[in-house]
Amino acid sequence: MSQKKRLSAIMGAPLRSDAPAPPDSDIATTYAPVAGATATPEKRPSAARSMAAMWAASRSGPADPEATVVEIDPDLCDPSAIADRVPDATDAAFAAFVEQIRDEGQHTPILVRRHPSSAGRYEIAYGRRRTRAARAIGRPVRALVRDLSDADLLVAQGSENLAREDLSYIERAHFARNMERAGVAREVILKAMGVHRPDLANYLAVAQSIPEAVIAAIGPAPKIGRPRWLTLADRIRTADRDRIDAALASPSLAGKTSDERFAAILAALATAPKAAARPKAETVKDGRGVRFARVERSAAGLRVTVEEAAEPGFGEYLAGRLPELIAAYRASRG
């Protein structure tokens, strides 16, 4: 199913190929107000092909006042109860994102619903970073307010994820696991993720094998794919708890990017090569019970150490007789 068809299905409206053309994008439109929000004229650039714009374009019939873009105090907007993003305090891209919105404005509205349990508040389906940016700047966030069921909100949240190239593998896995833990039906998770059952099983397997503390310490790791996360999962399974805790608390993680933190923790949990077992020495004693030599056997050979204090000069005597001894040995073997 295409992205546009999936969104049309969420909104409960058929997708019409013969729908009338939308008004000219250069004409400002005044929108009806929504409780707790301020309506503003919306002038959409043609490049703003957001999920919200696609949904609005797929609507047929009379204009729906709830499909309008309004301005909302970002402090009234709560994130979805099921997180998709993995926080990263070292995300330098967010600071650049804030400056872009400060300079250019917010081109793409977020999607929210009225909060199901807190009057006067809203729950974000998608656009959490845009909401954070608006809060940081101190300006309202532009939003579409829709009546969405819990399932619709998740599918809308997931569909936006599919359109974002910067959502990492572990964030997708994290989103799938959070939905499963919340008791979301498997069919809804599949729609929200836009994947088939085998792919969802892979996401869940990775998310379930990586402790949340490890994900929190690493962050989104945008350049790390499934194979390397599986390698980390294998190392976590074989490492003891103290070693894992030490890797997560290492001062060397400070100042590193999320991908670098992943590499550091992966290396810290690598299985150290086992030191070769030292061969056990055999003691050689004379007829009086005095130890005068030690014999050590290993795969590489045999070592004889003469105790010089016990029998002074015997070591030199033995060394001098070695040619004679090897000849006698060979003769004995025929």
TrEMBL record:
Gene Ontology cellular-component terms listed: chromosome
CDD domains reported in the protein's UniProt record: RepB_like_N
Residue stretches making up the ParB-like N-terminal domain: 70-162
One Gene Ontology biological process: chromosome segregation
GO molecular function, a single term: DNA binding
Family stated for the protein in its record: Belongs to the ParB family.
Record-given protein name: Plasmid partitioning protein RepB
Organism the protein comes from: Methylobacterium oryzihabitans
